[in-house]
Amino acid sequence: MNRIFGSSSSKKPRPTLQDAISTTDTRMASIEVKVKKLDGELARYKEQMARLRNGPGKNAIQERALRTLRQKRMYEAQLAQLTQQTFNMESAALATENLRNTMATVDAMQQANKELRKTYGKIDIDKIESIHYDMEDLLEQANEIQETLGRSYAVPDEIDEAELQAELDALELDVEEEGPSYLNDLNKVPDFVDEAPVEQLETPEQKEAVKTTA
Q: Which of 39, 45, 105, 185 is most buried by a 10 A CB count?
């Protein structure tokens, strides 16, 4: 039975603020149509009164015009009230929408705050600083090792270039004064020979033998 005729306990959804605004706009549109119709009647009565002379006929038209004018004023007052109501409801709807957006922003910020706390809560600042200091020490040790490996062995740290040049000039001067040593060594008698060699003259027999051979 409830499915056929419906249940009395069933409740209709409450109209929203947008529904109320739409309904009010519809009423305002209907009243504006009536006001325009009354304006047309008033214009017609005005023309009739302008053509008629004073008398019962003109007075009757004036009575109709007064009733129409009163009705127009009533509709205009209702229209003003509905306009103010629409403005108030639209302001409330805008405030509600802004509040809804604000709450969504707050919820998003709270969620982001939770995520940040969850992420950064796992980070130990002291541990990061310790790692940083360790890296500085390691880099300093590496630089010291490179400097140690780059040192020259048995070479003074500071060498006077002027002294080196003077020593080189002295060596060149000694070489010029002594001359080439290998030329002197050619005329020198070896140490294992006691006496210098003596030249032997050729005999007539040796000369004759040389000619015969030739």
A: 45
